[in-house]
Write a structure and sequence with these properties.
The structure holds 2 protein chains of 2 kinds.
Chain A (H helix, E strand, L loop, with lengths): L15 H21 L3 H20 L6 H5 L10 H18 L5 H31 L4 E2 L22 E2 L3 H37 L3 H30 L15 H24 L1
Antiparallel strand pairs in A: 1-2
Helix pairs in contact in A: 1-2, 1-8, 2-6, 2-7, 2-8, 4-5, 4-6, 4-7, 5-6, 6-7, 6-8, 7-8
Chain B lengths: L13 H18 L2 H5 L6 H22 L7 H19 L6 H23 L7 H24 L4 H5 L1 E5 L3 E5 L9 H20 L6 H22 L6 H29 L16
Antiparallel strand pairs in B: 1-2
The chains are: A mainly alpha, B mainly alpha.
Chain lengths: 277, 283
């Protein structure tokens, strides 16, 4: 078979056995956390899992175009999932981290706005480049009409392409993805920060003010690491490119929820064990 | 079932590279433990060598994985390697002298589960997936540990979270801000490693792929990252130790860069040393 035909094999099918095994793993990890770090640690882990699932679900909304989009042969932003998700997540994380002292709700909302804003700016400028730089209109190849505006798509689609540019629905999807990703990343950060703030002074035998830099950096690093793991797993789920919430690949999200939950639980457990053993 | 696009023709088999990289990394990490034995930081540069050895192994693992055309781009593999690796590495530092071995075991467990998730739950069904993600998490953890040793001279949790500030150049006060984790140097080490691991295969892939050229590029990228890490180590370790690290990094980078250019010229279809346009009279 030629290299062109060797597309990734991941289909839309679910694997029920693996899903059940994943859920059992999740329960085992939660049980370990309950044994090793009851109370604060377990609560932090649950927060981390929710954050990770938000990230995994949010990435499905982001219109990832990859290399075909750079050549104007597929809709979406012309880069890979890892780059886009890292951009939105880190922008959201920075926004949320500034608001960390104002409580979890304000911080998570601020993180969501930060991520959404980053994606909105990216999507708008990407369309500027597509329309004014490359001279191509925005047209989706997956639907006949834009689900939000009702604009007809096939007339604007060039032959031999899967669509091009960034249709309105993809723009909206990008912003929603950014909001979910930024909020999820910030939730992970806040949960770990609160845990480290309480436990690190006893672990390092120092005052709370002294260990604050360690708590902030460690929580931030873990948040970014968890974000990247979840984003890449989701990228494996959608095998590279997706147009947005109207893409048929979007229906694969239940698999990513299970995978993200288990991966976040595993990595979160390790992050919590640092201050408990 | 996906189809493998490229096959390794000739060259060293992957298992050999894996074992060599694994042994070299662990030996170099433990050689840096001479720091503790001699109560200096002069042997910190072994951390950088460990990181480069791990990177060479990791970039070949990326080649094995990404030859299947996973559809997400080569950089994503580097990102998941370091995302899972840093988590394993930070917990492993709690185990003092056993830290490198614990990092390997923890990285392998995390990578194994992530590999299972992508292959079974996400239905990727790529034969090399589980092994590659396992190796990659181990590589990520060991590379970060190598950079941590290079920058701070130690791979223990206490060594990575505690530094010291000199007030008026006389009194030394312990500080958590001036440290590998507290100062946020973890993030820099993370990306220095991630760039070095993802770039070589991304740059060398294609029908003209040659194993020795890619691995030489990896070594070159690794030593380039080591130069930056060695510069950062001036803040943490003895000046003499940092200068030694910097010199080792610069010399090795120069050598590998030269070798890489030679290999590139060897593999180029037709290479012409075009001189600058000569200045002729009247211009």
């Amino acid at each position: 078979m030629s290299a062109v035909a060797a597309k990734p094999a991941a289909g839309g099918a679910m694997n029920p056995t693996a899903m059940v095994v994943g859920l059992i793993m999740l329960i085992i990890i939660l049980a370990i956390a309950w044994q090793m770090a009851p109370g604060l640690g377990l609560m932090a882990l649950i927060g981390v899992i929710i954050g990770g699932v938000l990230v995994g679900f949010g990435v499905h909304f982001v219109p990832v175009g990859g290399a075909p989009a750079a050549m104007g042969q597929a809709p979406g932003i012309a880069t890979g999932v890892a780059m886009l998700a890292a951009g939105a997540g880190v922008a959201g994380l920075f926004g949320g981290a500034w608001a960390a002292e104002q409580g979890i709700v304000v911080a998570v909302v601020t993180g969501g706005i930060g991520g959404g804003l980053m994606m909105a700016i990216t999507c708008m400028l990407v369309n500027f480049v597509y329309v004014f730089g490359m001279g191509i209109p925005a047209a989706s190849g997956k639907v006949l009409k834009d689900p939000i505006t009702g604009d007809s798509q096939p007339e604007y689609k060039s032959q031999g392409t899967e669509g091009h540019g960034l249709p309105f629905i993809s723009f909206v999807g990008g912003v929603i993805g950014g909001i979910l990703g930024g909020a999820g990343g910030t939730l992970i950060y806040i949960q770990l920060l609160n845990l480290y703030k309480v436990t690190l002074p006893t672990v390092l035998n120092a005052s709370a003010a002294d260990v604050l830099p360690v708590a902030v950096s460690a929580a931030g690093m873990f948040a970014i690491a968890l974000f990247l793991v979840n984003a890449v797993l989701t990228a494996y789920n959608i095998t590279g490119t997706i147009e947005g919430p109207h893409d048929p690949k979007f229906k694969r999200w239940p698999r990513a929820i299970v995978a993200s939950a288990v991966a976040s639980a595993l990595c979160g457990l390790v992050a919590i064990l640092i201050v408990t053993i | 079932m996906s189809v493998k696009i490229e096959v390794i023709v000739g060259g060293v088999p992957h298992n050999k590279i894996m074992i060599a990289g694994f042994v070299c990394t662990l030996v170099c990490l433990y050689l840096s433990y001479l720091n503790v034995a001699t109560n200096t930081t002069l042997f910190s540069f072994f951390g950088g060598l460990a990181a480069v050895a791990a990177l060479i192994w990791g970039s070949h693992t990326i080649k094995v994985l990404c030859s299947y055309g996973i559809g997400t781009g080569v950089p994503s593999a580097g990102m998941i390697a370091f995302g899972s690796g840093i988590i394993a590495m930070l917990l492993a530092t709690k185990f003092n002298v056993l830290a490198p071995i614990v990092a390997v075991i923890l990285g392998a467990i995390i990578g194994l589960i992530l590999g299972y998730l992508s292959n079974a739950v996400l239905n990727m069904k790529i034969p090399a997936m589980v092994q590659a993600l396992t190796e990659m998490a181990v590589v990520g953890a060991l590379t970060l540990m190598g950079f941590a040793v290079l920058i701070t001279g130690s791979f223990t949790f206490a060594g990575l979270t505690t530094g010291s500030v000199k007030i008026l150049g006389l009194i030394s006060v312990p500080s958590y801000q001036i440290s590998f984790i507290g100062g946020g140097l973890t993030a820099v080490a993370f990306l220095l490693g991630a760039i070095a691991i993802q770039h070589p295969f991304n740059a060398c892939l294609g029908p003209g792929w040659k194993q020795d050229r890619m691995l030489m590029l990896t070594a070159e990228c690794g030593f380039l990252s080591m130069i930056v890490a060695a510069v950062m180590s001036f803040a943490m370790v003895n000046v003499v130790a940092a200068v030694i690290s910097l010199i080792v990094a610069l010399v090795c980078w120069g050598y590998t860069y030269h070798q890489y250019i030679l290999l590139s010229k060897r593999d180029a279809a037709a290479w012409l040393d075009s001189k600058p346009i000569p200045d002729t009279e009247g211009h």
